[in-house]
Design brief:
This protein is α/β, with parallel strands linked by helices. The chain has helices at residues 34-40, 61-74, 90-100, 124-135, 219-226, 248-257, 279-287, 297-309, 314-321, and strands at 6-13, 18-21, 24-27, 45-54, 80-84, 101-102, 107-111, 141-146, 149-152, 156-158, 167-169, 176-179, 182-185, 198-199, 207-211, 231-236, 261-266, 290-291. The structure holds aspartic acid. Aspartic acid binds next to loops.
Length: 335
């Protein structure tokens, strides 16, 4: 018989571990996951550690660092790590940990549920079981698992507030799915480690996400620079359209000239922004605006926060965005 896989379950809170309190659902520690953990112990050696106990809307970059550090320190003692987490900001945490843990050498799988685990019809047991199967798969990387689908952490987006199919892999195939054959992993989707695992947890919170709306005041860029922001991710229209008339362009130019890194992505969930298609986009590229291409907003935000945290210059950040670090971006083939 093959030795049983040793899996660490790190709990962080979220609906999966919540119980009703005086003012609604409150996250608790792993005691509330006990019945499912006992079941999983029929198949795996499960070690449980309560890392934090938060509704994920309260998770900040400092908690991402705590998760990344704990995963990095523990990685040699386990075959895989499952992180139970609230769904609301799980795509941000999974993206952040993907960048902080470069070339991680074991599977790290984020999961949660839409209904607390104690509920009879909870989706939690299914999500935990699939996550454990992925954590035991031997495929290194940071993943997010939900509704029997496993995706790269940096490609996940929460698309439903209450439905069980709450996450989708945006502009990337699923890394694994479940069928009557069991867990089927698509190895083409999973980036291979290129060197030894590294912990790079430094991150900056000085990045602002700006969703463009028709008629937005260009003074917003002055305000953001006065507030000390060092990066702006602009969720632009369609392929990357930006309202450049009425001084919009000069606001962005000044921001770039002041040393702020500006990344443009699209408000559309699917496909890629491409600033080279329209005149307005090419004007932005001339100014040094960075293309976010088909990255999710979560991945673009966190990549910029992380790049600034690494102390990179504006030029180095632009070069970093032209590289695919963890499978987060589809780059055009040079032809
Ligand atoms: N508010 C919860 C959280 O993100 C939602 C959930 O876990 O589904 O912690």
């Amino acid at each position: 018989m093959l030795p049983r896989k040793r899996i660490l379950l790190l709990t962080t809170g979220g609906t999966i571990a919540s119980v009703p309190g005086g003012q609604g659902l409150e996250p608790k520690d792993s005691a509330v996951l006990d019945r499912e953990i006992r079941y999983l112990r029929n198949y795996y050696d499960v070690i449980v550690e309560d890392l934090m106990c938060l509704d994920s809307s309260n998770i900040r970059p400092v908690e991402w660092q705590k998760m990344a550090r704990r995963i990095f320190e523990s990685r040699q003692d386990y075959d895989g790590i499952v992180v139970s987490h609230g769904t609301d900001t799980m795509a941000y945490s999974a993206s952040a940990v993907s960048f902080m843990l470069q070339d991680i050498d074991l599977p790290v799988v984020f999961t949660g549920s839409q209904l607390p685990l104690w509920e009879l019809l909870s989706d939690g047991p299914d999500n935990l079981r699939t996550s454990f199967a992925m954590a035991a798969s031997g495929r290194p990387g940071v993943f997010l698992c939900f509704d029997r689908k496993v995706m790269l952490g940096c490609r996940a987006v929460k698309v439903r507030a209450s439905g069980f199919s709450a996450f989708q892999s945006i502009n990337a195939h699923y890394a694994a799915t479940v069928s009557s054959l069991g867990l089927t992993v698509d190895d083409r989707v999973i980036p291979r480690p290129k060197g030894p695992a590294m912990l790079l947890p430094e991150i900056s919170s000085d990045v602002f996400l700006l969703k463009l709306t028709p008629g937005l005041s260009p003074r917003i860029f002055d305000m953001l620079s006065d507030m000390g922001y060092r990066g702006i991710v602009i969720e632009a229209f369609g392929l990357g359209g930006i309202n450049v008339m009425h001084q919009g362009l000069s606001g962005i130019r000044q921001a770039v000239e002041k040393g702020i890194s500006v990344v443009v992505t699209t408000q559309c969930l699917y496909d890629s922004a491409d600033l080279q298609v329209y005149q307005v986009g090419n004007k932005l590229l001339e100014m040094g605006v960075i293309q976010g291409r088909d990255m999710t907003t979560e991945a673009a935000m966190v990549k910029l926060m992380w790049a600034i945290g690494q102390g990179l210059s504006q030029e180095e950040i632009a070069r970093l965005f032209a590289r695919n670090l963890r499978g987060e971006i589809t780059l055009q083939e040079k032809g």
